[in-house]
Amino acid sequence: MKKTINNVDINYVYSDKSSDVTLVFLHGWGQNIQMMEPLSNYFSDRYSTLIIDLPGFGESAEPDYEWTVYDYAKMVHGLIKDLKVKKVSLIGHSFGGRVALVYASMYKVERLVCLASPYRPEVEKLPLKNRIYKRLKQLPGMEGFANFMKKHLGSEDYRHASEIMRGVLVKAINVNLTEDVKKIKCPTLLIWGDRDEAVDIKRAYELECLIEDAAVISYEGATHYAYLEHLPEVANVLNSFL
């Protein structure tokens, strides 16, 4: 499905189960709807779910100028309003988690889940794609998804990005959201792998101190994709939290 929000064509998948709260899933940089489907599938039988191709990724159009994370948050809010969704809980990974943090600082959110979400500038190492691929390939039912990740993730994303999207990335990694996250009042869950080489787990504990009602759950030996490496466990935790 597609809608034009803030002059950008947005691709999304919306499953309306008429639940009180809609779960909104936001993927990481260089990714798309498919990256969040394994997690959203755990909730699609009892929750309304909305997965968005963020502008510049998947089948959504690029913005016509270098958007900030605040622009992305406003776009998400615009789509939610257009779909007449009343209450939302946000689940965001990495860049999508950064957008979710901004959204929750600006708008009403029931629950917030951040999966390895950076919030301030730092020298970030790229995740070791091959190691993540091997780990996922060993998990039952994840072979096809691991192949998808191997094909789509990596440093080539930046080299192949348009000038506008490179500008978007530079703005995103340089913004400091410290004062923004202090405004978040909703219950927040921070899920990290203790071997995350893209966003160090210490950022999770910093966020826990900055956000009024937050808790950290870490997975030993897991990487930047802990939510996939420990998918059933993460789904069970979220089921209780949500």
Task: Please describe the structure with a list of short key phrases separated by commas or semicolons.
alpha/beta; 242 residues; 39% helix; globular; Rossmann fold
Structural notes for this entry:
The protein has 242 residues and is α/β, with parallel strands linked by helices. The protein has a single domain, classed as Alpha/Beta hydrolase fold, catalytic domain (Rossmann fold), CATH 3.40.50.1820. The chain contains 11 helices and 8 strands. It has an 8-stranded mixed sheet with strand order 1-2-4-3-5-6-7-8, sandwiched between helices. Helix 2 crosses helix 3 and helix 4 runs antiparallel to helix 5. The longest helix has 14 residues. It is globular. The relative contact order is 0.16.
Mean pLDDT: 90
In CATH, the architecture is 3-Layer(aba) Sandwich
Q: Helical amount among residues, as a percent range? A: 25-40%
Report the CATH topology name: Rossmann fold
Put simply, the count of helices is 11
What's the helix-strand series?
Answer: EEEHEHEHEHHHHHEHEHH
Main-sheet strand order equals: 1-2-4-3-5-6-7-8
SSE map:
Elements: E1 2-5, E2 8-15, E3 22-26, H1 37-40, E4 48-52, H2 69-82, E5 88-93, H3 95-106, E6 112-115, H4 129-137, H5 143-152, H6 156-160, H7 163-174, H8 178-181, E7 188-193, H9 202-210, E8 214-219, H10 226-229, H11 231-241
Parallel strand pairs: 3-4, 3-5, 5-6, 6-7, 7-8
Antiparallel strand pairs: 1-2, 2-4
Helix pairs in contact: 2-3, 4-5
